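INFO batch 0412 | record 1 of 1 | parsing
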Amino acid sequence: MKKEKHDELAARMERLGISEDDLIEKFILGSGSGGQKINKTSSCVYIKHIPTGLEVKCQKGRSRELNRVYARRELCEKIETQVFQKKSEKQQATEKIRRQKRRRSRRSKEKMLAGKKILSTKKELRRPPSE
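INFO prediction complete | emitting tokens
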């Protein structure tokens, strides 16, 4: 991973008041697809932030170092959502989908159908007269 990204992550952690001393980091055996290799190596990273009690487990990549970076990013996102009551991008996306799938209220459905009825009468009037 590039040095700029490491520096950016370190600055973000510093801004949120997360120090390396506050973190408990463990490496555990991975699970899931990947066959024999994933079951042999301890590439899954577990991080616990002692002051807040937040825990993160990360196994996105095959590399332990990349997983450490991903886990720290995830921890920063969790702390931001907790401290600033700011919804993460993932939460916003799921809420947007939920809103889109939600059933319309009776009133809004009536409004929509009334609008469609008006348009259909307009179109009806544009037709040439039938004989």
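INFO post-check: The radius of gyration is 26 Å.
INFO record closed
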